[in-house]
Structure formats: structure tokens, C-alpha cells
Specification:
alpha+beta; six-stranded antiparallel barrel; about 220 residues
């Protein structure tokens, strides 16, 4: 127990910020899209250990990251067994910015979805088994898609440039303070859910508008 009025976690107290939800969502989406590579963490299907592996972002829908997977890989079994224990995090080692997204994993294997997110680069990782079916192409039945339905997220946004952050850190060490080199933003369940609901409404409005325009032209 602290005997002072100072916060026991001064780093978090100095770094926390809460801009409008729309800005938090927009900045987070831009960050993960630009970073592209993240560490996907799952709970092992046969024990209580966690496993992480680097994954390339294949796309995103609303705020949900889209990833590729081999439907016969251990991570697919992990996500099928423990879909709710899923996290993916992204890091920019230059600025120190990072993001952590937690939620529920969905394994999608229908051909329209696989073909939508398919990339020719996948063939290098799946290989061609020479049977005319498992060839690494968009019709390869081994290829699946992971959609992480985000429930909560944390995003640390870099403040200032590299030199400014270095100076801030040195000054903080000398003064016994903590550096405020990132702004830590939390996106709770209600904010994330509201964002997805709004995206759905905007999409429906867009469809309605297009239908109305087509009717007018007809």
C-alpha cells in the first residue's frame, strides 16, 4: 500500500488518454493495417499453455482482423477448441507503438470467403502436393480464413518523434519521473460493439441508397 498520494502505476497514469471513440477506432485500424504483421496467441488444444506465432494480416472487416490458416495446422485446432481465448498484438519497434486485440476466433472455410482473401503468395507456404488438388491455389481445401471477432482492445499511440521520446525518457530518469512517450487508449466492449453496429448500419444505408438510385434510373 502506498503512503503517498501518487499513483502506484505512474506510467499508466501518465500515459492514459481517452479521445473520441471514432478517433480511437480509426487510429487503431490504420495502425494494424500499416503494421501488417502481428503475434497471434492461442490456448493450446491439449494443455493449458499459450502459444504465439507471427501472422500476416490478410484484411479486416469492421475492426476484426482477417488471417490465413492451414485448416490442418495446430493453431486451427487451438482456435477451434478454445475460440474465446484469442489475442493478436501488433508492434512498431521504431516508434514503440503497439496494439493488443482480444476476442473470439472464427474459422471460415467456405470457398467464397477463401477466394476473397486469397493471395498468390500463399502457394509458397502451402506447397504443391502434386495431386492436382492440394496445389496452394485458391481452390486448395487446406486453406482457411481466421476472423478474430474483437471484443476489447488496447492501443498505445506514439507521442512525438524518435528524438523527442529519447529526450523525454532521459529527463524522466534524471527526475525520477516516468516518460509519457505513448498514449494508452482502451476500447471496451461497448465501444467495440457500437463501432460494429454503426458499420453495419452504414452498410445497410449504402445498399438502400444504391437500390434507390438504380430504381430511379430504371
Amino acid at each position: 500500500m502506498s503512503t503517498t498520494n501518487k499513483p502506484l502505476d505512474p506510467y499508466l497514469a501518465k500515459s492514459s488518454e481517452d479521445p473520441p471513440t471514432a478517433q480511437k477506432i480509426s487510429d487503431l485500424k490504420s495502425f494494424i493495417t500499416a503494421t501488417k504483421y502481428g503475434m497471434l496467441t492461442t490456448l493450446s488444444s491439449d494443455d493449458e499453455l499459450l502459444a504465439s506465432r507471427c501472422m500476416a494480416l490478410a484484411g479486416e472487416t469492421s475492426l476484426d482482423p482477417i488471417l490465413h490458416t492451414n485448416l490442418h495446422s495446430p493453431k486451427t485446432l487451438d482456435l477451434t477448441t478454445h475460440p474465446h481465448q484469442t489475442n493478436i498484438n501488433f508492434l512498431d519497434p521504431v516508434s514503440g507503438a503497439w496494439a493488443s486485440l482480444s476476442g473470439t476466433a472464427h474459422i471460415l472455410a467456405d470457398r467464397p470467403t477463401v477466394e476473397k482473401y486469397y493471395s498468390p503468395a500463399l502457394s509458397a507456404w502451402f506447397g504443391d502436393l502434386g495431386d492436382g488438388v492440394h496445389d496452394g491455389g485458391p481452390g486448395d481445401p487446406r486453406i482457411g480464413v481466421i476472423r478474430i471477432e474483437v471484443v476489447e482492445a488496447v492501443h498505445a499511440v506514439a507521442r512525438g518523434g524518435v528524438l523527442g521520446r529519447a529526450v523525454e525518457t532521459v529527463k524522466s530518469v534524471a527526475s525520477g519521473d516516468v516518460p509519457g512517450v505513448v498514449g494508452v487508449r482502451y476500447l471496451g466492449r461497448e465501444e467495440v460493439g457500437g463501432c460494429k453496429s454503426l458499420s453495419s448500419l452504414l452498410f445497410l444505408d449504402f445498399v438502400f441508397l444504391c437500390s434507390a438510385l438504380l430504381e430511379d434510373r430504371g
